[in-house]
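G., the chain you wanted modeled:
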Amino acid sequence: MERFIFKKNVVFRKEDDGALLYDHDTGEILPLNESAADWCELLFANSFDMKAAEFEMRSRYEVDKGEDISGDMDEIIAVLKEKGYIVLAGKDS
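Predicted structure as tokens:
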């Protein structure tokens, strides 16, 4: 299973109501809502695998086991890959 990390020059800053991603290379800032910030913290800052991150998110947000939240995770990964904030772990970042 693929794992992603923040690109070397990306700063993740947790805020009370979400987080900010700052890319030193481009100068771009991306604000994240609270749940997106939690996904990012688990997946990219703390290197949880996807199953562990999903389990933790279910616990934090009291999500029923029958409810599919993997689409949220996939969407965040796709957006951050497209914008260049994350790279595959083990690749030159």
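Residues 70-83 form the longest helix (14 residues).

Shout if anything looks off.
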